[in-house]
Design a protein that fits this description.
Keywords: Signal, Transport. It is built from 18 helices and 10 strands. It is an alpha/beta fold.
Amino acid sequence: MKRKIAAAAALAAAALTASACSSSSGNNATPQGALSTQGAGKTVTVWIMNDAQKGWPDVVNAAKAAFEKETGAKLKIEWQTWSNYTTKLDTALLSGNAPDALELGNTQTAKYINAGSFVDLTSVKSQFDNSAQWLDSLAASGQSPDGSKTYAVPYYAGARVLIYRKDLFAAAGVTTAPATLDELSTDLAKVQAKNAAVPNFSALYLPGKDWYTAASFGAGTYGVKGVIAKASGSSWSGTLTDPTFVNGVKTWYSLQKKYSVGGATVDESNQDALMAKGNIAAIIGAGWEAGSVVDPKAGNPALAGDLAEIPVPGTAAGTPTPAFLGGSDLAVPTHAADPGLGAEFLRIFTDTANQTMLAKFAIPNNKTLISAYEAASPANQATGEAAKAATWFIPNSPNWSGADETALQTAFSAVATGTDPATALGTAQTTILGDLNAQ
């Protein structure tokens, strides 16, 4: 059970809190939560994931050059990988050897905010370019549960979209992308009928354990605030069994039952490879998954001209089904040697110039610059639209890192195999609430 993990996480959080409270800002006199340009003779260390090293090194180099010119400090980038990163970060924070600034996944942030491990940046938030237009769900991941304080800065985002085979849709007489869920269902029926003779054909492959997608349909009817659970003071109440959420899940199940073959009890990890084999007309996945489908090594490059992406249609035209917004945040450890310089690097790294450069490769951290992202490539249009629309995020709780997400996988898989949605989701809700409320 993940409740044991949750308890361990709580103990770790307590230790992190004690470490944060007992440590100072090293030998730096800059007040916590301030920006500093006084870096002469100093070296500032920043942890950044190697996604940037491989994907947008020019953005990092431009920010590094601007920072060093402005502050007189030397910037040391230490490239990180996601594997075992949480363990490494926990160790660094507990030992007092944390960097001056760092990147982390937006689903990891709440644990460290609760532990007091990050500098409160609320007072300088307005000095960060486009902070009033930060993407809603990404910004929320770096805030206190009530949204009044900012401890982490949005970096970049990713969103799920509908990826489909234009050739298979056109062969079935569908030449215009669906604008609503009703239109999508009608189009899928045509595609399914056209390919009735193809073994194990799925007009829309919806793995039962892909709870991010399934919950998005629930959010489409319930709303994006409080998906899975909502906070009331220090306690959490469940929303998985709310009738409006369940109705959205029923829509997902209807599509799954009619148009998806063989995926009720598996997750989405191999859907790209399955689509590459040719018997899947559409999937719901991150925008980059289209590249995986046509990858020369693991996919089918012959499909390169046949794929298209659109936001997952919603109940009304122009209102997509809310996407889960994943991504990365940036933060300054409370006991960094030079928190003011660390914060200043983050300000520069996320300014308009650097986020505009980043927009060639990933969804930027704010709505203002999504137009630059969309203009960079036609393939970015769908994910950009999804990010600008209503999005949802996991419960902003420090206990989420220990929550039993397998309960959600099990619940939606059960729905996909015919279990009453309210019953299956009720079981998951009991488990999740037990974790969030540390019961």
